[in-house]
Batch of 3 targets.
Target 1
Amino acid sequence: MPWDRLTYLQVLYQHERWFSWVRECQNDEEENREKEQKKVKMEAALFKRHWKASQQRLKESKTKEDKKRQDAYLEKVYKERLAEREAEDPDDMYWDPIEDVLEDNRGSFIGQLSLLFRVSLRLEYQVGIPPQRLISQSQILFSTSFGCQSRKTLPTPKGRTMWE
């Protein structure tokens, strides 16, 4: 029986070594599987980052391209309208706002002179003051309205002042 026991112990030892070797192999495989999973996850994250970055670049380039196209279209429309304006009336093309203001001032000055003339004619008709006298009265009125002289009372034929 001693041989039996010895063989039994040898077989038991062989089985134990075998099982430990299998366990080690399984642990190694599991570790490799976990490492592979981590590697796959890292590659997927890297791919997502690169995909997002490339999509962002693509979006920016499309936006830039659209803006260039829009600017080119607007420039084309602007040039067409300029050409139409030149064809319609070339004088409108060179409008000067300063000249426009000066022309308005000239017009208002002429308007003031015509108003003074109408007032003088009305006064001559209503009151009977001769035009030479009206010119001097309008000069006094004009100078007093700008503070050049003190306001003077001008006699009228009926004995009233001009401002009553």
Note: Residues 145-156, 160-164 have pLDDT under 50 and may be disordered.
Target 2
Amino acid sequence: MLRDNFQPDYGNSEQFFQNGNGVLTYFDPNRNLWLSVNRSTLTFGINHNMISGKRFMTMVAEISSNNSGYVSFRSGIITAISAHCKESVNTYFRIIKNNDLVNDYLNIYMDDQISNSTDNLTVNFSNSDVLQCLIDVDPGSYVSYPTVQLEIAWT
């Protein structure tokens, strides 16, 4: 049942409503949150091999995420992360929030894998937060043509 501008029953997962931003939402009982029905995907990647070291991955049109990152236009959560590459050894993909290089916001590790994913996340971010992806390859290790995708639900 779709209703506009009503007082939702927060315990009823079968109700949908349009929030103040015009976003159709539903109640997710597993996360105990109202989330957008539509999801967005953020994609980061590098179009070559990388041997050892750290580097921000690029976004659209080869813009490095350390120069900009994805700026959130509303609050939301990361619900899933996936990483894929041609081949990898000892590679960390670190999601950075607001240029904070000290505290890992979210990460995914790959060692002798071509893909890894997690789809049961509830990682919050706020309006105007900047999300970036830093690839960290251990000394003597490598990764080939990596990509990282984040699934976003709006709150």
Note: The chain has two domains: 1-37, 39-154.
Target 3
Amino acid sequence: MDQHHFLVCNLNGDNEQLENGEVHWIVPKTAKIGDKAFFFAGIDGIIARGIIKTAPNKQDAIKLGWENRYSSVVSEIEGYQYGVDANALIDKFPEWKWPTYPRSYNSVEEKLGEEIEKFIDATART
């Protein structure tokens, strides 16, 4: 079953990395190659999407200075024309609690993930 992962980023520098189309990023250890990843940047909300291209690796994360975490290559990154802010996600998906306090990554199963993805695509426009 595919998962959708929501990864937290920071517009002060991370945006430039995302524009390269491929990044090493902190991901949950349950991420799988081919899973979808969405980048959340604070008040700007969901600003980009990509695909997990490598299996989560703790050693790569440590090399990048991320102790006790896993990282993967996320590629095929596409930025959205407009971000989808947390309030819009909360209003549309009240059962999904992560947008109320998005401090770390979050993963959702395929059904909810597809609904969220459709909403983001319709709202944000690539």
Note: Residues 3-124 form a domain with the ph1033 like fold fold (CATH 3.10.590.10).
